[in-house]
Amino acid sequence: MTIELHGTSIIGLARGQGREPAGRAINPASGNTLDPTYLAATPDEVDRAIGLAAEAFAEYSALPGRERAAFLRRIADEIDAVVDDITERGSLETALPEARMQGETARTTGQLRLFADLIEEGSWVDARIERAQPDRQPLPKPDIRSMRRPLGPVAVFCASNFPLAFSVAGGDTASALAAGCPVIVKAHSSHPGLAEIVGRAVLRAAEATGMPEGVFSLLYGSGREVGMALVKDPAIQAVGFTGSRGGGLALMEAASGRPQPIPVYAEMSSVNPVVLLPGAVDSRGEAIAEGLFASLTLGAGQFCTNPGLVFLPDGHGEAFLGKLKELVEIAPSAVMLNDGICQAFKTTASDFADTPGVETIAHSFTKQVEHRAVPVVFSVNVRRFLEDADLHGEMFGPGMLIVRGSLEEIEATIPELEGQLTATIHGEDAELAANASLIEALERRAGRLIVNGFPTGVEVCHSMVHGGPFPATSDGRSTSVGTMAIERFCRSVSWQGFPQDLLPPELRDDNPLGISRLEDGKRV
Fold first, then answer.
1. What Rg value do the Cα atoms of the chain yield, rounded?
2. CA distance between the termini of the chain
3. What is the model's pLDDT at position 369?
4. In which residue ranges of the chain is pLDDT below 50?
5. Hey, which residues are catalytic here?
6. Do the beta carbons of residue 132 and residue 143 sit within 8 Å?
7. What is the pLDDT of residues 226-281, one digit of tens each?
8. Of 134, 139, 313, 344, which sits 20 to 30 A from 226 (CA to CA)?
9. What is the rounded distance in angstroms from the CA atom of residue 257 to the CA atom of residue 280?
10. Element (H or E) spanning 360, and its range?
11. How far apart are CA 149 and CA 467, in angstroms?
12. Beta-bridge partner residues of 464
């Protein structure tokens, strides 16, 4: 690896000193620790990072979109320049294959460039103009114009399961920087070296493009101390988080308890229900089983969109179940991201197996070893499923629960589910049309609906919604993937009666940026 790791936080343009060890990375495949020891940011360093971000906000938020876009593109270029180091260190810290590291790097740089294109074009601000009507009766109409403006400094918490795309320069950071908000990132303890490599790439980009000091900082330390200090500081105006339900709820409680509550955009848990209609499972059951198995085991089941719950109508699916059992029984074990995740999955799977009324219908014959997990599939009838709320919970790993019942019972069960990131239905054309009410029920429980596909694979694009009703996310109106994610870190502001030279360029009559606007109720 060509980059020497220092093991300290990045505070604006400087490196932190730290005092207390925050730990070392652990190779999840071997259990071996990796150098260096990372030092936790001190309270003074946390305050310094927040103060710099607050100072940077005034200048950074006022920059033209093309300048912020140049910053985002330079971050992508700097990350591309160290992809070999990212791949080497990332594979050591996560045991993810090189192809996954390279693919996630490409996704990370791709979304940075996508946001750069968005803000350079400029229409994302949703400019609206209502011109004055001084002669209107019975009262004159004033001139009112509005657009989106950035909230302020944002705290971003890195995810364990996506060490690049949902971490230091991932979607939360990209969308916040695009909106005009400085970002302070809390590194994840599972991949601190990778965080440092990417953090230094962001810092180089900030220096190269002349961004104000404090537009970006990276802090090491515990969530209880460093993380909570960020969330509770009055300068922080929003939080982005991807992780456990417990962690997300703790941040939400802290943010709501502030004198000035702030939004926490937390992605927390989802079992991503899949409904198999009779015609589809009877005609192509084996193919569905193959696709479902691949989706279940992708990333050792540690994606937020792995399917963990399948509804199968009674009297159907013999070939489907047979093929799924065959695939699961010969499946190899897989290294999980860290020991805590691995042990949590094994405990949850054991609890499912010991639950009365739950049958283990498929389990890999591969020998269980430390740090590794094997896929397992359980089955339960719909009535027992409804009786036990614990069966609705997430097995964060390659575990799946199949719920059997009549199609009528299955439809009646969907509203009883918690909010989900995704919901999938497999059906033939005629039966899909005949089950419109079932699809509507799924829509009310999820942020993304899939027909005859599988939930893993989240396309980064303008129309993607990666969010859903609570507890899939803390705010079901938002998305953490795709360009709509920028809306989380903005607020709408109106200017009434302002002279032209005091208006933002986006709202002036001559439209110097040439953006699409809503003028007097018409899109132009």
1. 25
2. 52
3. 77
4. none
5. 267, 304
6. yes
7. 999 999 999 999 999 999 999 999 999 999 999 999 999 999 999 999 999 999 99
8. 344
9. 49
10. strand 359-363
11. 22
12. none
> What would the pLDDT profile of 447-487 be if each residue is shown by its tens digit?
999 999 999 999 999 999 999 999 999 999 999 999 999 99
CA 6/CA 47 separation, integer angstroms? 21
Helix axes 171-179, 65-81, angle to 10 degrees: 150
CA–chain centroid gap for 35, Å, is 28
Going 483 to 484 to 488 to 492, the CA torsion angle's sign is positive
Provide the 3-class DSSP secondary structure of residue 383: helix
If one counts every other C-beta atom within 10 angstroms of the C-beta of residue 523, the result is 7
**Which residues are paired to 400 by β-bridges?**
377
Residue found by looking up tokens 């399948």 in the block: 310
What's the rounded Cα separation, in Å, for the pair 7 and 38?
4
Tokens of 499: 């002279």
Nearest residue to 7 (alpha-carbon basis) of 199, 158, 193: 193
Which residue has 């989802």 as its token pair? 270
In the 8-state DSSP scheme, what is residue 227?
I
Phi first, then psi: give them for residue 341, nearest 5 degrees: -65, -40
CA distance 260 to 12: 25
